[in-house]
Amino acid sequence: MSKEPLYSLRMRAAQGGAHEEGGLHISGGERLGFRDEIEALVSGLLRKALQHSRGDADFINLTIEKVEPASCRVLSPLPVSTYEVADAEEGRRQAAVLLRELSVSEQAIRNALCLLGSVNNLRGAVLLDSRSGERLDTRGERGIRVSRMDWDRERYLYWQNQHPLFGSPRIAEAIALATKVAYAPGTVAELCWSDDPEYVTGYVGSRRSGYCRITRLKEQGDFSGGRVFFVEPGTFISEYIVHLERTPVWIG
């Protein structure tokens, strides 16, 4: 790990005003980088905000904050597997199978599928008790925003060469986030599908099973989606949230 100053860059974009004023969530992005990378990283985040299928953003918030490099945790990326399914119904059945294998309860699975299938303005993740299915955070549509994670650049190039089918920025970002979540103390599993209307692939993530891509978890044109983190009962939720939002993580 370099001792150069390290910066966290966080972007969120909405349409119809700021998120806090009821604006529709359009996009978000998280990067870590050194001083000489900031300009390029900012340009990439702005492109993501301004060229998005959910709509035209008229509110963009960009935050840049120095991070102590010594506080960074280094994690290996979750292994990737893919489950080919014919439609969203089959995809959600497959997700339920994977979650059961990780000891997530039937109630928690039902609650998560119902939630993700019905929301279209969820800006962060929802925390559910992995046994009771009860919601553990009180953030509403704001949810929990996992932050301060990115790939080590050289390790990403190596990983990309080993996984040529999964080299898109979208998948790279998702694996970085899923890896940080999976290794957070208290995480049992994650279920996610994008709220982008043209992107129907989602995943179940966990330390035990890795990053399990499911090729269809919703139908084309559907704006629903988001993330659910299934949390071990007894986890100190305030500490869990601080870890997800504040602890810097390099993937590599």
From TrEMBL:
EC number(s) recorded for this UniProt protein: 6.2.1.14
Sample GO molecular function, one term: 6-carboxyhexanoate-CoA ligase activity
Functional pathway: Metabolic intermediate metabolism; pimeloyl-CoA biosynthesis; pimeloyl-CoA from pimelate: step 1/1
One Pfam family per UniProt: BioW
GO BP, sorted A to Z: biotin biosynthetic process
Alphabetized InterPro entries for the sequence: BioW
Domain of life, source organism: Bacteria
Record bears the keyword Ribonucleoprotein: no
Catalysed reactions, semicolon-separated: heptanedioate + ATP + CoA = 6-carboxyhexanoyl-CoA + AMP + diphosphate
Alphabetical keyword list: ATP-binding, Biotin biosynthesis, Ligase, Magnesium, Nucleotide-binding
Cofactors required: Mg(2+)
NCBIfam families assigned: bioW, PRK01322.1
UniProt family annotation: Belongs to the BioW family.
Record text on subunit structure and interactions: Homodimer.
Function, as annotated: Catalyzes the transformation of pimelate into pimeloyl-CoA with concomitant hydrolysis of ATP to AMP.
Name of this chain's protein: 6-carboxyhexanoate--CoA ligase
Species: Aneurinibacillus danicus
